[in-house]
Design brief:
CATH architecture of the largest domain in chain A: Up-down Bundle
Radius of gyration of chain A: 21 Å
Largest interface: A-B, 36 and 36 residues
CATH class of the largest domain in chain A: Mainly Alpha
Oligomer: homodimer
Shape of chain A: elongated
Distance between the termini of chain A: 47 Å
DNA sequence: GTGAAAAATAAATACGATCTATTATTATTT
DNA sequence: AAATAATAATAGATCGTATTTATTTTTCAC
């Protein structure tokens, strides 16, 4: 009968509360139960809970004040680009198509310009990483998980090759998008996947060949293709909702 | 001689450690002193320190492991777009011109497109906020602090009018840039400020008039003007360094 | 000697009890 | 009715102790 139940409790409390908040299970402005109660209800000590609360405060999701308690802050003050916050929003249970579209919109702003910069600034190592990732994508076409990983690797490598830390940071947003998309969006449509691979090939090689203009336009082409896929997915989700209603 | 020194300790420990880490006072891969020592040296209890450490972990700056201690994570894994992380990097003591240039680079990618979207999507309230901010900028031309605040307000309002939470989140990066720029960059050069105001006027009004194309190009013009100013500042910093060497 | 298993160890992780500081609310006074 | 003082609720912070985990050292068999 060990009372003290292992490790990683703070992390898990952060995730639980983070997901609840992202899913609006606690609404903006709402006040959480007092520390002791919340700790009890989560089966952890007050210290562990407090550490979790501090982490969430650091991400802008909540604010604490003595006597008044712990309050959910307005959504537009959250650190939306925080990797954890992104992943909580991507929870397949509660993620909305708007979420994917918002991410896609910013991808369409950042990625073509990142590709353009990468074509100019990539070192030989950068290029090697990019091409290796493309190879993996091709190799693992049949294995959804590994294909997505390689896809993420490729986009990450392109952003990194822009040699701008702020641009590079978008890898988390893109990774979140790609993971969510692969879960929510798509059963593997053979023809779409082939086309997608080809588009990735074109970007990778424009960068490898220092063609900034084509890197830009190939990135745009790729994201247009993605957009179509999201819109279809959204459409099919709507159909589903109609059916279940 | 109060041992228990008031409140807000966690916040202040987070800031102290955050700044040290951002300034590479602790280097990547380095291991921090053990909790008890570090807590003692900062004059706080171990719990307060632990809460601070958890916050910094949440922002990707450090990672903890039993037995091995608390280690500084590689820079490219930090949440660079976190408002706190941004502000720690903007510390005038240690901020580099590269920092400003990196931020300016991403501003040049995001803001014109945000302005374009704002021209299409802004509600009447959005437009009112944008124009009010512009008015303040004009009104407080002579008061550097208030002028910068109004400048930040204006850019924030434009991003908000894009109605995309991820784009809007950039307000922190822009605010950091503008604050740092006003501190580091510029004694107020009358002619530059007048030109700057004019450029802001043009953006605000293209958005108000739903002119997406001009909003885009006016945003580009404004940022080009900014770039010149950063490059001059960088140049003068280099001169200063030469003289002091 | 060498390699693998076992023990010691050092660090973070977690709990619980207790005290403090702050502040919203309530009660009191003017 | 308004200003002020008391109250109580809640987060903030500390201390001490036990647990867990991963590394290092030691032991022991081969």
């Amino acid at each position: 009968m060990k009372k003290t139940s292992g490790r990683g409790q703070v992390k898990s409390v952060v995730d639980i509360l983070g997901k609840r908040i992202a899913a609006a299970q606690y609404k903006e402005g709402e006040i959480l139960p007092i520390e002791q109660q919340l700790a009890d209800s989560l089966g952890v000590g007050r210290n562990a809970l407090r550490e979790a609360v501090k982490v969430l405060s650091g991400k802008g999701l909540i604010a604490t004040a003595p006597r008044s308690g712990t309050r959910i802050r307005p959504r537009d003050e959250w650190n939306m680009l925080d990797p954890d916050v992104l992943s909580w929003h991507a929870d397949p249970e509660t993620a909305t198509p708007e979420f994917l579209l918002a991410l896609l919109e910013i991808r369409r702003i950042i990625e073509p310009r990142a590709a353009e910069l990468a074509a100019v600034r990539a070192t030989r190592e950068d290029v090697a990483t990019i091409l290796a990732a493309y190879d993996d994508m091709q190799r693992y076409q049949e294995d959804p998980d590994r294909r997505v990983s390689a896809d993420i690797e490729l986009h990450t490598a392109i952003l990194a090759a822009s040699h701008n830390a702020y641009i590079s940071h978008f890898r988390y947003a893109i990774a979140t998008y790609l993971k969510a998309h692969s879960k929510i969006g798509q059963r593997s449509d053979r023809e779409k996947l082939r086309k997608d691979l080809e588009l990735h090939h074109d970007i990778a090689w424009s960068i490898a060949r220092c063609k900034a203009k084509s890197a830009y336009s190939n990135s745009v082409r790729m994201l247009n293709h993605g957009r179509l896929r999201v819109e279809e997915a959204e459409h099919s989700l709507a159909e589903e909702a109609k059916r279940s209603a």
